[in-house]
Amino acid sequence: MATTTPPALSAGRGPEPPVPAAPAAKGRPRRSGRLAPYGFVAPFFVLFAAFGLFPLLYTAYVSLHRVELQTADRMDWLGLQNYTRLLDDPFFWKALGNTFTIGVLSTVPQLLMALGLAHLLNYRLRGRTFFRVAMLLPYATSVAAATLVFAQLFGRDYGLINWVLSSVGLHPVDWQAETWASQVGVSTIVTWRWTGYNALIYLAGMQAIPGELYESAAMDGANRWQQFRHVTIPGLRPTIVFTVVVSTIGATQLFGEPLLYEGSSRGGISHQYQTLGLYLYEQGWSFFHLGRAAAVAWVMFLLIVVLALLNAAIAARRNRTDR
């Protein structure tokens, strides 16, 4: 009886291994792998939508209605009437002007002093770690505590500042009633709190500048001032733009310091240092007009967007001219 030899054996090879079966759901792991990054970032978008985007859009919706604090569940459609009332309110324009003035008085000296302090700390000073930590102490101090202390320092009758002025033969200044004096007082608090914070940001940017640039400048005969002007400042330009934008946003939202400086939402007897933040607080929680307060909030938001875009455009234009 003839036997049939298996093909694999008749060809002189060993038995062929069994062909493994194709995986049934090979596409499923790939799809989950593509979706995994979205799952990692999903919590951020959920929190942003719940606590950032929704309040922003709901505030815009409220700004188009008449809403009173006593009857917050009742809304009467007004359209843009809340915004037109703001344009006709002289106190709104005064608050806008005060916000700009206090912002300039606090931001410009603050950033200049922060730049100088960072330049000093960039050198190898004895105890520089202690000075760096001390820079953050004003930033870590409570806004309420710092403002109350400065309000005592700027007191008219028993304040330390007026005592020093009187000791050198100058007349005392009413730091809470005069327009420029009160704005300088509020700006001083802001400058004291944020100078050290910005100085550390500038210091981090300076340490990222290659040391070879300073060595080349020194070999070309540049002194420290020339190195600071032609090496440090160009290297810090992105950092400077960042601090200007953040300081501008902070100045536009200024609230705690002017509120606690005298303890009134009016910003002084004649609203001489009332900022937009105080004006918003006054409309919503002193006059109970939540719709108008929402309109002020959206005006502040649009103002911040315009200022940020303006700073970005100036920085981009400066970069193009340098190239």
Q: Secondary-structure map with pairings?
A:
Elements: H1 7-10, H2 27-62, E1 65-66, E2 76-77, H3 81-88, H4 90-121, H5 128-135, H6 137-140, H7 143-153, H8 160-167, H9 179-207, H10 211-219, H11 224-235, H12 237-252, H13 256-262, H14 276-286, H15 290-322
Antiparallel strand pairs: 1-2
How would you portray this structure in words?
By secondary structure, the chain is mainly alpha-helical. It has one domain: MetI-like (MetI-like fold). Helix content is 71%, strand content 1%. The protein has 15 helices and two strands. Strands 1-2 form a two-stranded antiparallel ribbon. Helix 4 runs parallel beside helix 9, helix 7 packs across helix 13 and helix 10 packs antiparallel against helix 11. The longest helix has 36 residues. The chain is globular and about 75 Å long. The N and C termini lie far apart (94 Å). About 2% of the residues have low confidence.
Question: Superfamily at the CATH H level?
Answer: MetI-like
Largest sheet: 2 strands, antiparallel
Q: What integer is the average pLDDT?
A: 86
N-to-C SSE string, H for helix and E for strand:
HHEEHHHHHHHHHHHHH
Strand fraction band? under 5%
Percent of residues in helices comes to over 70%
Return Rg in Å.
31 Å
CATH third-tier fold name: MetI-like fold
Mind telling me the CATH class? Mainly Alpha
The strand line-up of the biggest sheet is: 1-2
Backbone structural class? mainly alpha
Outline, from the CA principal axes?
globular
* End-to-end gap: 94 Å
Second CATH tier, the architecture: Orthogonal Bundle
The total domain count is 1
| Number of beta strands | 2
Helical segment count: 15
The low-pLDDT segments are 8-12
Domain ABC transmembrane type-1: 96-311
Region (Disordered): 1-30
Organism: Kitasatospora camelliae
Family: Belongs to the binding-protein-dependent transport system permease family.
